[in-house]
Design brief:
The protein has 289 residues and is α+β, with helices and mostly antiparallel strands. It has 6 helices and 14 strands. Helix content is 36%, strand content 34%. Helix 5 packs across helix 6.
Length: 289
Amino acid sequence: MKKTASILTLVTALVVFTVLAAAAVTPVSSAPDNGNQAAVAGPLVLDTEINNIDVGMNFNGSQIKFSGQAPEGSAIFLKVLSPDKKVGLSKQGRKGPVWLTVETVQLSRMPGMFQVMSSGKIGDLPPALQQEIGIEPGYPALKKTAEVTSKRDEKTVALPPEEATEFIDGLVRINEKKGLYRYEENAIQVSDSSFKGTINIPPDVPRGESKIYAYAIKDGEITGTAVKDFKVNSVGLVQSLNIMAQQNAVAYGIMAVVVALGAGLLVSAAFKEINRIIFKDDSSVGAHH
């Protein structure tokens, strides 16, 4: 039983430490461009039900419902962009009989969230127009601006495209699994000059100000554009942990270890007490025989 309690203590400590570490991750505040040049205000109206999302310890994602007016007969395309976020990635490789980390890189200049929604098929638009508004399938607009760096010979160097591609594609796959990167065709309902839809915000949405770009397109031409902002804020304990991690990383690290170990010991003590009661009851029953 002691061995089981020790394992439980270690697992609990690791879980708590992971939660604290995840709460302290903050994105770089710079806003990405990624093909936004076409998003100039025009004859299109875009409204959202909320423009602030608060992220606490129990945050499990949210939704932003939107609606608007556009020139009649137009198809509607929506693009959601969150601030750039630096991400560390590791490459695994075989060394002898085991798999180990063979390279660690930093990937930057890619948005923390990128979503595209449309009332029709993106492929129905001319390729030049897809590129102009930055919604081409396969994320080429994002991959073009991405930068991958690695430490080699004690120097930080930018990887050439042929080496950077596997890391960029890997991050895209990770973000797709998290719901941060996605394409949703036929997800916007259009009726005459009105349109509406819902943006699904995943739990890992980056903090900071994000933008919603709307485009009305008819006969291969942009007939209207609009831009709307929404802000994602950390609140409560998550906010406090973020501030501590940024302003005093050493203190945050010590606190995370102490809290993780404390939680593990607390669970272990409770586990031992439960077993003590169970075995005591078993002994009492046996004594009558």
